[in-house]
Specification:
elongated; about 160 residues
């Protein structure tokens, strides 16, 4: 059973990571690195990492759909030709789009904020974007939390 304190922490974690996904000046990594301080157990920490991932992807989905709707505005300008050119390249090799999103969600290079908008504008398959982005964020957040724990346990 999840305690009331953990439930509240999960709600705050979700809200903060959604905000960090939409507003780039709110840093998701700082939020995730603070999670062990609020987790009474490894299970609770795992739950918080999953919540952080869900929050991030909720916000990134907002960006994806913003890019998808914004594509029609960009299509009227020179950028429309550039987007069409990239769309054709990625449709010819869809694995590249998946690789770009995975790399971005894992490493932050190119910024996942930008890649979320671009994925929408290029009309990348939404379930693929969501799944690949979630896997990348989950691994990234898990590694971010695990490395300090491993370092601390080594010195104890």
């Amino acid at each position: 059973m999840i305690s009331a304190a953990l439930t509240q922490t999960c709600l705050w974690c979700f809200a903060l990571t959604v905000a960090s996904a939409v507003f780039p000046w709110v840093n998701a990594e700082v939020i995730v690195l603070s999670l062990p301080a609020f987790a009474p157990s490894r299970t609770a920490l795992l739950i918080l990492i999953l919540v952080a991932t869900a929050g991030q992807m909720t916000g990134k989905c907002v960006l994806y759909w913003t890019g998808r709707k914004g594509e029609s505005v960009l299509a009227r300008r020179r950028m429309g030709r550039v987007l069409q050119s990239w769309r054709e390249r990625l449709e010819a090799r869809p694995f590249r789009a998946v690789l770009f999103v995975l790399l971005s969600s894992l490493t932050g290079l190119p910024p996942f904020y930008v890649m979320s908008l671009v994925a929408g504008a290029l009309k990348m398959n939404f379930p693929t974007f969501l799944a690949v982005g979630a896997v990348g964020r989950l691994v990234r957040f898990g590694v971010l939390v695990t490395i300090p724990h491993l370092a601390l346990s080594h010195y104890q």
